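hey can u check if this looks right to u? its 731 residues, i copy pasted from the old doc so theres a chance i mangled smth
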Amino acid sequence: MPFSSSSMQRSFPYATVAGIASIYLLTAILKSFLIPFYRSTDFDVHRNWLAVTYSLPISQWYRDGPWAPSQWTLDYPPVFAYFEKVLATVAAGVAYSTNSDNLWKMLDPLAQDAVAPQSVVVFQRLTVILSDLTLIPGVLLLCPSLRAPMKTLRYLGLLYMLAMPALLLIDHVHFQYNGMLLGVYFSAIGLMQRGKVLAGAVTFTLLVLSKHIFAYAAPAIGVWLLCNYCMVTRFYQPGTERTFSFRRFFGLVAGDPSLCCSSVTMVNCSRCSTRMFPFGRGLTHAYWAPNLWALYYGADVVLAKLKGLPGSAFTHGLVQVMDPTVLPPVRPIHALLATVVVYLPILTGIVRESGRPNGSQRSLLFWATMGTSASFLCGWHVHEKALVTVVAPFMLEIILKRDLHGSSRYVTAVASLSTLMMASLLPLLPDSLPELGLKWALMLFSWSIDCCLASMTSDGGRLHRFVVVITAAVCVTYRWVLPSVLPLDALRSAHANERLLRPWSNGISPGLLLRMLGRRRALAVVLGTPLDGAALETSKFLFQSVRYKRYRPFVRTPTPSQRALAQENWLKRRRRYGTPGSSKDTASASGDAEEIILKNTPYQALRLLRAFYNTDTVSRITFDVDIRVDLTRQSVRGVVQLPYGLKTEIRVLALCPDYMASEMLEAGRTTPASSEPLNKIERGWLPFDKVIALPQVIPQVVKLAKILGPKEVDAECTQWDCRTKFEAGCD
């Protein structure tokens, strides 16, 4: 049957504004309670993107430099970079109106704090909450009609998308913008289904240029448009076959390439494509996505164990190209061929259904999501979070569909997939007490929704309940049963002490330290004395591995062998770092040894490390760890934070009249006049710590007093004093 705009309902489904606002405000309040929770390194990544897009020109966004560390490079398409620039502009306006120095630092890629201040956290969290507004038009455009029964379904669909447990975990805890992108995706599909194909195509192009993962659905959408929009029937000749309309085809493709070229030509295409498609990261991510390659690598690990071969590094959290031990290696071309093989039946189904009446055809949302699921199943380096782009559209279509009894298998399959998705997202949050309770609460909430939908089918959801029981049993076994059965005493003690070992933001995880040291090993931490009277405080941590017969986390009474070992270590440390004074006798040495042995547990060691985590002085920490790892087969990753950098620098801005520019250039100034820096400061340019101004330029500086309020301004200086201070600041 020919595609025509009259066959699709053009009327926009205007629901009650008060009802929509109530749903959004209710979910926004719920999301606001998640602001102080754990945030991943993606938070710092987006924080750096705000600074890069605000402080640098477009030509430098995809270039490597000191403003973009290797793990924080901008690897999203240009349209999302423009979105980050808009957020950065809003942040600059808020910083200007509130005189917030923390927000100004956030917009400077070279002056960001190691740990984000609370104001920065609140601002970035609020941007995610507000960006979820795109879900409202997306859900309303997908609603098929305006009849009274559909009003409740619209509310249910909107409530589910705004409070979807997976999106709460990924966006509002882990920190991403998937909700906003899904709203744009739903809007594009809804516009196409309602006959506004050109507007929907442009919206979908903008979406792909915002996050290229949505290009998975492009082949299915393209074939659907060719079969339903470009194939027309001449109405004055009924009964004739459909013909291809070149006018519609060229009108469809005319706007999208120009839009794509106008956005991409501003940046270097090769660097942009290299970052968006990093084939050097390997077939799987650090956390395996539940797809075909997870089964493939899992089978390789099992076969290697059965044959007695050394295990591979797949299970060690590495992100790089690694070959299996037994099975043949998989290359990008193999993943592409597998994706094409799985995708072809989907495209064939679209072509076969194109001649049916519109009432008997499946929706475009269904076919596009099927294409996304095929790419997720066989794609190269797929993240586990990408499964939300498959489950969310399927679940929304089920909610907006009135008859669930005729598609019980479909509903059961989608509900089971949603259950497995929430189980695969568990590793995104740490195992500390608040986050542990949060992620299990979200999982139970998601499973309750899945069970409710499955119970509305003709079979009553019996098969889905079986899937839920099996999934819950696997999760509980992996989380609690295996650590208690296997001889992992240190790992078990770390989980038992998590109530006391509250992980701090971006700090050292107790489980990570215990895994590095190996099981049945305790941690001996010895704090050395700092340099006497030195400006640079030096704190030396000496990590030693002490083997015990059985691990005990809280040793209060040391055994004689432990006391002798601690005394021997104390004497070795004294010979290495200095001899004890004459007042030190054997009793005091024994007392010090006993005091040291009391710190010979991971609990005491981590408390000591935490005490020096937020130090106010420039410190240097040296530590040695015996990890006992075969580096030929295994790798160890860690994070070292240097909040003050390797070298402390104070950036001084010296303002002088134009006729004194040559003298200031001799002192090391890079800008030869005062007019240019003052104009840049008015636009929010503040990449400096202190300001030195001569009396001649004070009238111009006074106009910027509101902006320069947090900065230290030294205006009472002569020409020679200014040069001297500036040279000292540069040194």
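The longest helix spans residues 462-485.
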